[in-house]
Predict the 3D structure of the following.
Amino acid sequence: MKNTRIDLYSEAHLFVAAIRVISHLKKIPPTLPHGDRLFVRDHLNIEQFKDREAPSDLDKALSEFKSEKQSLSKKIDSIRADQDKKKKDLFAMLNDQLKASQSQTPQNNGE
């Protein structure tokens, strides 16, 4: 059997039609298991769904991929920042050690 997808607009029309058919056949609005009754207040509100498309599986997968890529990029940037800080700290430490070793060695003034 072919897997058919129904868009939100068509699904809303089917739902309203089902409520109307049950209401017509039973002469009362359909009820939910908790006793809440279903009725259609304004069927024209369905028109707001006409131009909307339900996100496809490809769209969902694409958005998940973009989210994961963005997360990975943030992680990479964080690692790079940490490495840059370590590099600067190491350079500063080596520079301090070099200055300290230079100050400890006697200077020849050409005498």
The CA atoms of residues 8 and 52 lie 7 Å apart. Helices lie at 8-26, 57-104. The chain has a mean pLDDT of 86.
